[in-house]
Design brief:
The structure holds 2 protein chains of 2 kinds.
Chain A: E1 2-13, E2 16-28, E3 33-37, H1 44-51, E4 59-64, E5 67-68, H2 74-84, E6 85-88, H3 100-110, H4 115-128, H5 144-157, E7 162-166, H6 174-189, E8 193-198, H7 201-205, E9 209-214, E10 217-223
Parallel strand pairs in A: 3-8, 3-9, 6-7, 7-8
Antiparallel strand pairs in A: 1-2, 1-4, 4-5, 9-10
Chain B: H1 2-14, H2 17-54, E1 59-64, H3 77-80, E2 86-91, E3 93-100, E4 105-113, H4 116-121, E5 125-128, H5 133-137, E6 142-145, H6 147-154, E7 163-166, E8 169-177, E9 191-195, H7 196-202, E10 212-217, H8 223-237, E11 245-249, H9 250-293, H10 295-303, H11 308-345, H12 353-380, H13 383-388
The chains are: A alpha/beta, B alpha+beta.
Keywords (chain A): ATP-binding, Nucleotide-binding, Transport
InterPro entries (chain A): AAA+_ATPase, ABC_transporter-like_ATP-bd, ABC_transporter-like_CS, MacB-like_ATP-bd, P-loop_NTPase
Protein name (chain A): Putative ABC transport system ATP-binding protein
């Protein structure tokens, strides 16, 4: 599903060259629940950006579903993000002046799915995160946990092959965080691939497999 | 996709109403000035051409500047119209005199002429009659006054048969012209007509030598031919000297007038178009702010699958919508302003439809032109940079 082959990402800050990713190689299979753990500055955000096709590797190859990402144009990448990847961010990243329903609907609009079908998918997704009753609320009328569930619903709605979560519980209290994690377990049990990026050992432990990243190196791949 | 973009654009416009309105204000003012100014210029043009038309479009006016010591006499005039191209001729001299009665006194422009003048100029007495050739021959002190003189100097309209004093000399009123119904401006013009010969006696400035006379062409279509005939007659009379006289062709006056008013409309339209352009810059300014402000939103949209073209379209449609909305509001305001002008000024100007379309087209062009740069700026944003942005 995801294959990193000697991937490096280099940032130049002034004269200094910083290798955010240094010859990282790893492999994540279809249906896995993997956590990527590392302290801040370890390169995990860079890793997540590359996995999410938001950024490109400078060296090495990244294969998503067997396809090398480097070959795609910007528009094609947008298409891949739209169809294959469901993002869940630490800060939810919902659009403020849109209701929950409209936020969930947005990726489907970009997929040009007809309206009645969109309605169905949105309703289904919001029901799965138990927010069907808050469809017409805007993000600022909802709690952090609810907002994150809307974000998850948005990811669910387009039926992606990969859920990519970046510190999804980082802005939430532990009880709400637990609920969100349960949602991930549920998604995993339904056969979805989940990559969860975190610096929290406790969260990371809940994944079936953890990949540790430190100073740009993928250091340890351990089964938990 | 376009429908969705329209919806989103509408949402973002309505979610910041004050700002959207202020952005539109530039376009609104531009459109209002364009539509109103051009409509008023068009209306003024047609009212000017109407009043020129009412003077008679088959009118030729001749003024003699050098009589070669052989001045034109009243008795010679009829020789000029002894052909098929010209139909009537009348001498014109004018003088400003004080007209008085027991009721009031006013300064009046008095024309000294003959009976043919009424036919040439299309004057019609409402009551009484116009001047006759016998009045001219006998130097009778008779006068035809217009309605304004009648009401202001005599105190009422029905004054045929009464006497009015011009510079102290008594004249019998033989006719009162019908009141002009079309405009209020004409009401303040004091005009009266007396026999040419009587005017010679009344003032020193007018002599038996005719310096100005007017001629009517046989038809409006043969104006050029009539002018040519008259020119050759005048050349024969004044020893082939082209500079001895001037012939003013009413239809060429009209053409000149039209070109002047057209230039005026173009000029006003141009100035208004500049203000529309300034409005467009206002749109660009706000759109740029909006793009920066919504960097994060753009990032989110891109992350969940919006391509460059989609983002571009969204912002472009937003700019277009703002300018079109502004244009429509502007057209609405223009309509109101023209109605108010019509009521207050007692005129009937119509909103020029062509300028409405023009301003619509121009606004759209401006929306696209000034929306393109901000939209492109939004579309070019990299998703990771945009997501990381904390404004």
């Amino acid at each position: 599903m995801i294959k990193f082959d000697d991937v490096s990402k280099i940032y130049t800050i002034g004269d200094a060259e910083v290798r955010a990713l240094d010859h990282a190689s790893m492999h994540i299979r279809q249906g896995e629940f993997v956590s990527i753990i590392g302290p801040s500055g370890s390169g995990k955000s860079t890793l997540m950006n590359i996995i999410g096709c938001l950024d490109m590797a400078d060296e090495g190859q990244y294969y998503l579903d067997g396809q090398p990402i480097e070959e795609y144009t910007e528009t094609e990448l947008a298409h891949i993000r739209n169809k294959k990847i469901g993002f869940i961010f630490q800060s939810f990243n919902l659009i403020g002046n849109m209701t929950a329903e409209e936020n969930v609907e947005l990726p489907l609009i970009y997929q040009r799915i007809p309206k009645h079908e969109r309605r169905m998918l949105v309703k289904e997704a919001l029901e799965r995160v138990q927010l069907a009753g808050r469809m017409h609320h805007r993000p600022n009328e909802m709690s952090g946990g609810q907002q994150q569930r809307v974000a998850i619903a948005r990811a669910i709605a387009s039926k992606p092959s990969l859920f990519l979560a970046d510190e999804p519980t980082g802005n939430l209290d532990s009880a709400t965080g637990k609920e969100i994690m349960e949602l991930f377990h549920e998604l995993h049990s339904q056969g979805n691939t989940i990559v969860l990026i975190t610096h929290d050992e406790l969260v990371a432990k809940q994944a079936v497999r953890s990949i540790r990243i430190f100073d740009g190196h993928v250091e340890e791949v351990r089964k938990s | 996709m376009i429908l969705q973009s329209l919806k989103m654009a509408w949402k973002s416009i309505t979610s910041n109403k004050m700002r959207s309105f202020l952005t539109m204000l530039g376009i609104i003012i531009g459109v209002v000035s364009l539509v109103v100014l051009v409509s008023l210029a068009n209306g003024a043009t047609s009212s000017v051409t109407d009043s020129i038309n009412s003077l008679g479009t088959n009118l030729l006016t001749v003024s003699i500047s050098d009589d070669k010591d052989n001045p034109l006499k009243l008795s010679e005039l009829n020789d000029f119209i002894d052909n098929d191209d010209l139909s009537e001729i009348a001498p014109v001299a004018q003088s400003s005199v004080t007209a008085s009665s027991t009721y009031s006194e006013e300064s009046v422009t008095v024309y000294g002429t003959t009976g043919a003048y009424a036919d040439i100029q299309g004057l019609e007495p409402g009551t009484g009659r116009f001047l006759k050739s016998t009045d001219v021959e006998n130097h009778t002190n008779v006068i035809v006054i217009n309605n304004t003189v009648a009401t202001e100097v005599m105190g009422r309209s029905n004054v045929v048969g009464e006497n009015i004093k011009l510079n102290g000399t008594s004249f019998e009123i033989i006719g009162v012209l019908a009141a002009e119904d079309d405009s209020e401006d004409a009401a303040s013009v004091y005009e009266a007509y007396i026999p040419y010969t009587s005017l010679i006696r009344l003032t020193d400035s007018v002599s038996t030598e005719i310096t100005t006379f007017c001629v009517s062409a046989a038809s409006e279509d043969s104006m050029d031919q009539a002018e040519n005939t008259l020119t050759s007659l005048m050349l024969t009379r004044f020893g082939d000297d082209e500079d001895a006289f001037t012939i003013i062709n009413q239809s060429s006056v009209m053409e000149a007038m039209e070109s002047v008013t057209n230039t005026l409309a173009l000029l006003l339209g141009g100035i208004a178009a500049i203000s529309l352009l300034v409005g467009g810059i206002g749109i660009m300014n706000i759109m740029l702010v909006s793009v920066t402000e919504r960097t994060r939103e753009i990032g989110i949209r891109k992350a969940i699958g919006a391509g460059r073209a989609t983002i571009m379209l969204q912002f472009l449609i937003e700019a277009l919508l703002v300018s079109l909305l502004g244009c429509m509001i502007g057209i609405g305001f223009s309509w109101m302003i023209i109605q108010i002008v019509n009521i207050v000024g007692d005129v009937s100007y119509a909103m020029s439809l062509s300028v409405v379309w023009l301003s619509m087209g121009f606004s759209m062009l401006i929306g696209v032109m000034f929306g393109l740069y901000p939209a492109n700026k939004a579309a070019k944003k990299k998703p990771i940079d945009a997501l990381r942005y904390t404004g």
